[in-house]
Design a protein that fits this description.
CATH architecture of one domain: 3-Layer(aba) Sandwich
CATH class of one domain: Alpha Beta
Strand content: 15-25%
Distance between the termini: 20 Å
Number of strands: 36
Number of helices: 28
CATH superfamily of one domain: Gcn5-related N-acetyltransferase (GNAT)
Strand order of the largest sheet: 29-30-31-32-33-34-36-35
């Protein structure tokens, strides 16, 4: 049961083509004729059959088992009947090649496919290509060359353009998939398949729209954890304007949130068609950078300086030869050469100089990639230099990028470099940009590995009180909380706020100010005024009672004159922050489809829109993500010692960000929020003003359904006893458990490993380890039993190790799941297997799944015994007699 459910579509062993043969009296279609031509000429080596649905007794003439894939190349009116015919043939998947199917007809075709359990790519798809299988099931203009790069595109025109470019630049593909509007198989399904595809080393995605943010993020995270994923998204500009009620709603656009989502998923975004080609070249190379340190070698100072300048602009670190390498290499290079900050070999450089220098730089631990730049010179054969690097390429373990400048004189050299899979560019800037994008993949992996819990281990918030407050506001048919209500909501989550009291008259204002102590701030309180300072509704540093009275009266008069229809509750009185050296920052929340809530952070105060200093992150946050969010804004520099003020308390700011994340996770009613300003200094952080907008919770019935990224399910943690008085912790697997999981697998006996994996493995491969540890808790779960050894006599920490793991993965039908279980050999017979299975079944049941099933080897008698004790039905497995299928209702 390890094969991916889309295997029949993307790796079919047998194909039936439903199309009108040329001499048929039935009308054909140009699309269908092209599809038939392509699949005939592609050289596909599997079982290939052509069937004309218009022929008499077309189905009766078949005596073969159901094919993996049915390719429908027919006019639109005949597609529904042809898909029904494919269902009667027991086809597992179908591909409809068409360009003009209406959305209504597409929905009907999708319904037919669902009814018969067929995985359908199309309609309005230009098809797929699998060069390694010699399969061209498409109506695309070009046939892809073999390679390791997968292309998934929601635009047929762009797919054709990429293939045309790739053919001239020596870029090959493992898969090309064209997804059009109306297709049943969507971008998330394809990414999910490519994540486990052995022939794919990197993925390029062209994206126009997303159906389900949670599914998309889940599939994208799984794919990016296994291999680089590059995304080009159309429609970066806002689709329209909206009446935002907060700064956050006004300044955070959907494209900003999309950026944050890609970073969190570990993918890299490009913003232009040219950049897509640029990164595609790098991804087709044998190696990828593990960091951002680039060494540059050139035979001309000008191009080298241009590359160095662009590297500086992009934040790429320049690296050069180590003193030891320089001492050894310099005598063998031209006397005019210079070595800092880049290696300029001078115009006397030849092929051997380039070979020696690139080899030395690639061997350095301080270098992550090498850029070789060549400018044509009289007497220099650029092709021989290219050949020297091509010959060197197999022995180098680093990414080498080249820039052969010029045109006619370097055509032959570029052909040599392309054939050797060495990325080559026409300008130094493009080459450096390619390295920058390639290295960004590894930087984003740190964000990908973060799986925070929805609630931290700080003081428990008053969640119920916060919900009651929101329900009260909504019951009054309001959506905007007053300042006092907003601060009360923040205080429920233990966020420090200034004490604020509403005064409905000038006399009340004086009494309150006397109680609070001077100086105080006065602010107009109105649900109709989003930005108080815009209407002169804020007064600071008011120092005595008379001034409070006069300010109150003056403020009410001015605001009523400016906004006569505004509802005014009064004026709030609050202490000044008491932080004369404080830095004014802001924390915001906006919520926009399809990704839901996003937390923003940046410079605060009255000039927030003008300054435009902000960074965005998707919840949930942990400390690492909060630190990363802070560090990405320019105003983070002011948190250090700044203009005579001591360094600010960054930890206090991080705690507020994590508390805001808790609010977002636990309160799906939140829509917008401005915490502006948050004043932070050396003594801590304090919220001075806040404005929160709420609405009724989304209808998504899933747990944390309003979030694009499901948080770590800490509520599943349990302590269970073991015989002998010890205990173990049963909890969900965390991405950081990779080392413990690898040690667990290595420690199993040969028999236990064979029973679990049905093959002779001694340890998990890097790809398997990534797949097992970074999971989407919404569609799968892995529970681990953690046992702690006794603490060592020297007082060190007790060592933790995994002693059992149970897992389920939801099947494509979304109602059943497949389980697996393995227990450490030394802990067998202690009831651990029963507890692990009961626990994983409870999780699956709570997720709404109806059935659980799994394969057990016939020889695995202890597991079969456990299955019988848990009332599983045990029967044969038709695809392999060595296994038994164990299943039961949940």
């Amino acid at each position: 049961m390890e094969k991916h459910y889309l295997n029949p579509l993307f790796s079919p062993r047998s194909i039936v083509v439903l199309a009108h043969i040329p001499d048929s009296s039935a009308p054909g279609s140009s699309c269908g004729q092209l599809a038939v031509k392509h699949i005939r000429e592609s050289g596909y080596t599997g079982s290939l059959e052509f069937l004309d649905p218009a022929a008499e007794n077309a189905l009766a003439s078949r005596g073969k088992p159901g094919p993996d894939l049915a390719l429908l190349a027919l006019p639109e009116p005949e597609l529904a009947d042809a898909l029904e015919l494919a269902a009667r043939m027991e086809c597992k998947s179908a591909l409809i090649l068409s360009k003009s199917v209406s959305m209504r007809q597409a929905q009907e075709l999708n319904a037919i496919a669902r009814r018969h359990g067929i995985y359908l790519l199309g309609p309005n798809s230009l098809g797929l290509q699998r060069p390694n299988l010699q399969l061209n099931a498409s109506v695309l203009c070009s046939s892809a060359q073999k390679g390791s790069l997968a292309l998934v595109s929601q635009s047929g025109a762009l797919t054709n353009s990429v293939l045309d470019w790739a053919g001239r630049n020596g870029v090959g593909f493992s898969a090309v998939v064209s997804l059009g509007p109306g297709t049943s198989i969507d971008i998330a399904d394809v990414l999910d398949y490519l994540a486990d595809d052995n022939t794919t080393r990197s993925i390029v995605v062209y994206l126009e729209g997303i159906r389900d943010a949670r599914r998309f993020m889940s599939a994208l995270r799984a794919a990016a954890n296994a291999k680089p994923v590059i995304v080009l998204k159309a429609g970066r500009q806002p689709s329209g304007t909206k009446a935002a009620l907060t700064h956050s709603g006004a300044i955070v656009g959907s494209d900003d949130v999309f950026d944050a989502a890609l970073r969190r998923a570990g993918a890299v975004r490009v913003r232009s068609f040219v950049q897509l080609f640029t990164i595609a070249k790098c991804l087709s190379a044998r190696h990828r950078p593990q960091g951002r340190r680039l060494a540059i070698v050139t035979n001309g100072g000008g191009p080298g300086v241009l590359a160095a300048d662009w590297a500086n602009d992009l934040g790429v670190t320049l690296s050069t030869l180590t003193p030891a390498s320089l001492a050894e290499l310099a005598p063998r290079l031209p006397q005019q050469a210079s070595y800092d900050p880049l290696v300029d070999l001078s115009d006397a450089a030849g092929p051997e100089d380039y070979r020696l220098t690139v080899a030395a730089l690639a061997a350095s631990d301080d270098v992550d990639g090498v850029l070789a730049i060549l400018s044509p010179r009289p007497g220099l054969d650029s092709a021989t230099v290219a050949q020297a690097l091509a010959d060197l390429q197999p022995s180098i373990g680093k990414l080498v990028i080249t820039c052969w400048m010029g045109d006619e004189q370097v055509v032959a050299a570029r052909a040599i470099l392309n054939k050797a899979s060495i990325p080559t560019f026409r300008t130094p800037e493009a080459a450096v940009e390619a390295f920058d994008m390639a290295s960004s993949f590894y930087l984003n992996q740190k964000l990908l590995q973060q799986t925070p819990t929805p609630l931290s281990k700080f003081d428990k918030p008053d969640i119920e009180g916060a919900r009651i407050l929101i329900e009260t506001v909504l019951a009054e048919r309001r959506k905007v909380l007053t300042e006092m209500e907003s601060k009360a909501l923040l205080a429920a989550f233990r966020i420090p706020v200034t004490r604020t009291i509403l005064a409905r008259s000038a006399n009340e204002a004086m009494l309150i100010a006397n109680q609070l102590g001077y100086p105080v701030a006065l602010k107009i309180d109105s649900p109709d005024i989003p930005h108080k300072s815009d209407v002169e509704g804020v007064a600071l540093n008011v120092n005595n009672a008379a001034s409070v009275r006069d300010t109150w009266q003056d403020m009410m008069t001015k605001v009523k004159r400016r906004l006569p229809d505004a509802r005014i509750s009064g004026v709030t009185i609050q202490n000044m922050s008491g932080k004369p050296h404080g830095r004014e920052l802001y924390i915001g929340l906006s919520s926009e489809e399809p990704f839901g809530p996003a937390i923003s952070f940046g410079a605060g105060g009255r000039m927030i829109e003008v300054i435009a200093d902000r960074a965005i992150e998707l919840p949930p946050l942990n400390r690492f993500l909060a630190q990363h969010l802070i560090s990405r804004v320019r105003s983070a520099e002011t948190l250090e010692e700044w203009r005579g003020a001591p360094a600010a308390d960054r930890e206090a700011l991080e705690r507020i960000l994590m508390r805001v994340s808790e609010m977002v996770c636990e309160l799906p009613q939140l829509r917008e929020m401005d915490i502006n300003p948050v004043i932070v200094d050396a003594d801590g952080a304090l919220v001075v003003d806040a404005r929160i907008v709420v609405d009724h919770a989304p209808s998504d019935a899933r747990e944390y359904g309003h979030l694009a990224i499901l948080p770590y399910p800490a509520e599943q943690e349990r302590e269970w006893p073991l015989p002998g008085g010890t205990s173990y912790t049963l909890r969900p697997l965390h991405p950081s458990d990779g080392a413990m999981l690898q040690a667990f697998v290595k420690g199993l006996s040969h028999e236990s490993r064979y029973f679990r994996f049905a093959t002779a493995v001694s340890e998990l491969s890097a790809r398997m380890l990534a797949r097992f540890t970074l999971i989407d808790y919404d569609r799968e779960m892995a529970l681990v039993a953690i046992h702690r050894n006794a603490a060592p006599p020297d007082g060190g920490a007790a060592e933790e190790h995994v002693i059992a793991i149970s897992r389920y993965v939801t099947n494509p039908d979304s109602t059943s799941c497949e389980f697996s279980l393995v227990v450490a050999d030394e802990f067998n017979g202690q009831g651990l297997g029963t507890r692990m299975m009961l626990s994983i079944m409870d999780v699956a049941r709570n997720k709404g799944l109806k059935r659980i099933e799994g394969l057990v080897l016939n020889k695995n008698a202890p597991m079969l015994k456990l299955m019988r004790s848990l009332e599983f039905e045990i029967g044969p497995y038709g695809d392999d007699p060595d296994f038994r299928l164990c299943s039961r209702e949940l």
